[in-house]
Amino acid sequence: EKGGWSSFMAKEISEEPEAVAKTLLGRVADGSVHLSELDSIGDDALRSIDRIVIVGAGTANFTGMQAKYAIEKWTRVPVEVELSHEFRYRDPILTPNTLVVSTSQSGETMDTLMAVKYARENGARTLSICNTQGATIPRESDAVVYTHAGPEVAVASTKAFVAQVIALYLFGLHLAVVRGTLSKDEVAEIVTELNALPDKMATVLEQHDSIKQLAGWMADTRSVLFLGRHAGYPVALEGALKLKEIAYIHAEGFAAGELKHGPIALIEPGIPVFVVVPSPRDPNSLHKKVVSNIQEIRARGARILAIAEQGDAAVLPYADVVIPIPLASTLIEPLLAVIPLQIFALELASAKGLDVDQPRNLAKSVTVE
Ligand code: BG6
Questions:
Q1: Given this model, what pLDDT does residue 353 score?
Q2: In this predicted complex, what is the ipTM?
């Protein structure tokens, strides 16, 4: 079943281009987006939504964080992202114009299920993004958009992450079409980029062996930091989570701008720091700021592993290793940048002789609160 791969996780990472392609299939046509699954909510209701809350746990929380950048930009509807297990215990403000979107690979995570039930009982509308047909969470929701990543066996989520971000992006685009906040041309441009993503992901996957070597010489590392900014920030968090989950290494993700407000104190000679570098073409010009963050921590002895756009010459003088990713726009780039981080965690755990598919103390889906 592993199809020649050493683990399910390795196999599932290799399936990411397909997971994206299948999640897009039938939902993007003629440069536009339509999710018939949302018909059960209806266009009038979608137009009256004044707030979106995305709830999930673990990796499924980071997909919400990722999608917030896109959904707010495209729809101008405020998006909050919250851990599902925190959500219902703080008396959240819910109205019929609140849409609570849950993200769950399994569709069975009890914390997330209880958040959805709470949202419904308190008058909000609910949408489930789920990878498992007929699971409990979609059954408890007003509408469901399935990701089509295929069964995910490894406990650490990989292909479900990218498929979930794609489904949330499609939801954002559908909403933007219904609400008229993006022009036809703008939607078509994003759709073209989404359709090009699987091939770009495949070129990142070709670097598996070189990332494996990197992991090999870092097997004794005790702590790894991950920095990202804007849409690269959730990916930094996800990179750190993967390393904790399967390699049992202390890892933390930070927003690069936060560095000087605390985390820079952690920088000591030799500490590996992965940096998700925004594109030099980024319209927010965050590239320069992240490069200067790199310079600051390099001066304090950090070893820099930069995930940067192909041909980004500005990072070269300061990075110990550059992992190049293909050109993509700001909101798409994180879907490419996450792959090297997943491979790194997989290979570091393997180099330590650990069972990557069944890490200690964790379950694929947690059906208790
Ligand atoms: C955790 C899993 O218990 O649940 C994580 O170990 C996962 O890998 C999280 O991201 C959420 O799971 P689901 O099925 O709701 O996406």
A1: 95
A2: 0.95
